[in-house]
Amino acid sequence: MNSPQDPAEQNANHSNALFGDDELSKLLQYHSPLLDDDFAKNTINEIMKTEHKRQIILTLFSFLGVAFFCLLIEPAFLFNVTHALATRVGENLSFIMIGLTMSMGVWIVGKETDFI
Amino acid sequence: MPSDKELIALFTGSQDKLAFTILVKRYQCAIRQFLRRLSGGNHALADDVAQETFLLMYRKLHTFNGQSTLTTWLHKIAYHCFLHHQQKNKNTESFDWIEIEESATEQTDASADILAEQLMSILSLHERLVLTLFYSAGMSHSEIVVATDLPLGTIKSHINRAKQKLSEYLTTQER
Q1: pLDDT tens digits for A28-39?
Q2: What is the pLDDT of residues A6-57, one digit of tens each?
């Protein structure tokens, strides 16, 4: 590749005659270093926020996946759990609790993911 | 001062946020400047893509195997993020071929970076890419091959063509 017969190399020599490497290096070098100006801080904050949301969504989908799996494999399992709760604590109270927990879950997820 | 290797080990081993912050601070300047050149002087876009680059670094640092340097690896991610952003916004944004201001060509020092960024806009994306990596980031040809996935011959051709274009442009400006 780097032999003198290489057309790219010959072309490079021709270009050097037009525009020296040193001249070009001087022109194109990064002249003034960019100050941090909170870029790193903002970037880290943004990354943490994004990762937090991602974790919540992943957890939610994991729960949904498990629930779907249970329904698919053993529908009676979920029914039994709900039924046991309903009979042990009292039908109305358990349904209110389940409703409240679900609403809170939806609200927290919505808040964390900026949907609400 | 801890080396990149030590910081990577700290972060991948125990999710040490401080180690990651040091890495971001260490490389933010090079990556932002590279993206500013690539975008032809669009600073807002460059900083957005730089943030995406560091987010990917956060997620993928455990896959970094040390076969290239961290700076080469980061430049590769930055380039792919830039390409992705460009494809996503190809119908809404246009940052190619920015007009070069007359005043910028007459000043030095502070505006030298702006002039260089604006000069990039007369080149194609690949020409900008290899010229910046070679002359500004100081990478060798083999490092550019790793960072861009372009063949060596193509890289050399792009550099030569870009040099010719810049020569011709600057010659016509001097007249």
Answers
A1: 888 777 776 688
A2: 544 444 444 444 567 777 888 888 877 777 668 889 999 999 998 888 888 8
Name the residue facing B55 among A30, A39, A50 (closest C-beta).
A50
Residue from B61, B72, B68, B75 nearest B9 by CA:
B61
Q: What is the DSSP string of A30-90?
A: --SPPP-TTHHHHHHHHHHHHHHHHHHHHHHHHHHHHHHHHHHH-HHHHHHHHHHHHHHH-
Q: pTM higher than 0.80 for the full model?
A: no
Measured distance CA(A42)–CA(A21) in Å, rounded: 37
Q: Which residues of B touch A36 (CB under 8 A)?
A: 25, 28
**What's the DSSP call for residue A105?**
H
Q: Tell me if B156 and A27 make a contact (CB, 8 A cut-off).
A: no
Q: Which token pair is A83?
A: 């039924």
DSSP symbols for B93-162? ---SSPPPPHHHHH--GGGHHHHHHHHHTTS-HHHHHHHIIIIIS---HHHHHHHH---HHHHHHHHHHH
HSE (CB half, 13 Å, CA atoms) of A33? 8
What interface predicted TM-score (ipTM) does this complex get? 0.75
Residue B107 tokens, joined: 């000043």
Q: B105, B125, B121: which is closest to B42 by C-alpha? A: B121
